[in-house]
Recover the amino acids of this structure.
């Protein structure tokens, strides 16, 4: 009910740009450009310092700061559901830069059930579905498989350090009972709306690999300002 009401009010009431506040537009052209494009022209590989063990290569469409940060939070925390489309298009561009061939399986990093309930929607899964749709329209075979869950309660990570986040998530993320078969279908690209320390993506990667899935990489809408930005030609030795 809450998600439906948010979508309805977004259609009938005047809105301001979620990024910069420009009136009468949910997302202005300038802020849309900061998110990136479906072709992934501005995507960069991001690597947090320190990087958690098991973190796959992560590609980010934008930097998590200023207008981009405001847009991501408006969608996730304030229920601006109409922003899922442009955020998904940006994520699709990051997925393309992962470089996997053939059909793709987009696996969202899971949020805690209580967090999803409080927000009234699963922000990451919604963006992932929009990204998969964008990829299919461009001719790429892609589907979303929400096969990860948190099997125990974890603390809110917002105020935790990178090491504390790793400890908080240790053993908490697992593949659902029906997810093992789905992971055999195609290379996995882990997706999330943002990456900070990389702990959530690393925990998700361990769970997928433990279940026999093959991870091609990870893609996010936004990466942290302090993360190193690697040229697309760089590869770790």
């Amino acid at each position: 009910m809450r998600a439906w009401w948010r979508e309805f009010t977004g259609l009938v009431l005047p809105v301001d740009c979620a990024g910069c506040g420009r009136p009468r537009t949910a997302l202005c052209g300038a802020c849309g450009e900061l998110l990136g494009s479906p072709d992934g022209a501005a995507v960069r590989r991001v690597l947090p310092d320190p990087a958690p063990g098991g973190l796959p290569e992560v590609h980010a469409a934008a930097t998590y700061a200023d207008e981009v940060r405001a847009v991501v939070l408006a969608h996730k925390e304030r229920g601006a559901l109409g922003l899922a489309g442009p955020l998904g298009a940006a994520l699709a561009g990051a997925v393309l830069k992962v470089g996997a061939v053939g059909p793709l399986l987009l696996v969202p990093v899971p949020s805690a059930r209580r967090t999803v309930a409080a927000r009234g929607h699963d922000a990451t899964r919604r963006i992932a579905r929009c990204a998969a749709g964008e990829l299919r329209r461009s001719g790429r075979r892609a589907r979303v498989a929400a096969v990860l869950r948190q099997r125990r309660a974890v603390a809110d990570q917002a105020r935790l350090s990178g090491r504390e986040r790793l400890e908080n998530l240790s053993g908490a993320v697992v593949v659902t009972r029906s997810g093992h078969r789905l992971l055999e279908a195609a290379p996995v690209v882990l997706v999330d709306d943002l990456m900070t320390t990389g702990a959530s993506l690393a925990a998700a990667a361990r769970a997928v690999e433990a279940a026999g899935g093959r991870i091609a990489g990870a893609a996010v809408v936004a990466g942290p300002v302090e993360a190193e930005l690697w040229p697309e030609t760089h590869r770790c030795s």
Q: What stands out?
A: The CA atoms of residues 67 and 168 lie 30 Å apart.
